[in-house]
Design goal:
single chain, 182 residues, mainly alpha, globular
């Protein structure tokens, strides 16, 4: 079930990014306002449907957690809001292909989180796949930068230092994972 949800989510996320790119003339704050309105509406509907169809007499499940869980949820929401805002601005500032390519570095961060927080171990094929992703993202960025494929100073400055920092950190994190697993 998880795989099916992730495949569907990939299509939805791709549509979201393409539509954000199409809205590049609209200020990102307006786009983000409507992201929030729609997100809150969908979340409210989901909570009410869950309550209506699975209520066990304990009230809304959303009110039955401890403080640590709420702190984690609030932290996740803050990071999600930052991520959605920055992805929207990135897609409005540069080509969809380039921004999507850079976003594959999230895989490296997922590996790091699994390793450090959840103490997961990885198979060789998983690490090789992560290396391929890192090589492609680095190669695409460097090729675009040096050959001037629309990724020159203007768009590079619009994307800002964040993407360059992500590339560097992604490489360092992958090296950490390799040395930790070998």
């Amino acid at each position: 079930m998880g795989y099916c949800i992730m495949i569907a989510m990939a299509w939805v996320y791709a549509a979201n990014c393409v539509l954000n790119r199409a809205l590049k003339e609209v200020h990102s704050s307006v786009v983000m306002f409507w992201h929030g309105v729609c997100g809150l509406s969908i979340a409210d509907t989901a909570v009410l449907l869950e309550w209506a169809f699975t209520s066990s007499g304990d009230g809304l499940r959303i009110t039955n957690y401890d403080g640590t869980t709420y702190a984690c949820v609030i932290g996740a929401c803050i990071f999600d809001a930052i991520a959605v805002n920055t992805v929207t601005m990135a897609f409005q500032s540069d080509s969809s292909g380039f921004v999507s390519l850079i976003s594959y570095l999230n895989i490296i961060y997922g590996f790091l989180a699994d390793s450090l927080l959840f103490h997961e171990t990885f198979q060789a094929v998983q690490l090789i796949a992560a290396i391929v992703i890192l090589v492609v993202t680095w190669g695409g960025r460097l090729l675009g930068f040096f050959l001037g494929l629309g990724l020159g100073c203007g768009s590079g400055l619009r994307l800002g230092l964040g993407l360059g920092l992500r590339l560097g950190l992604g490489g360092l994190l992958l090296l950490f994972l390799l040395f930790r697993c070998v």
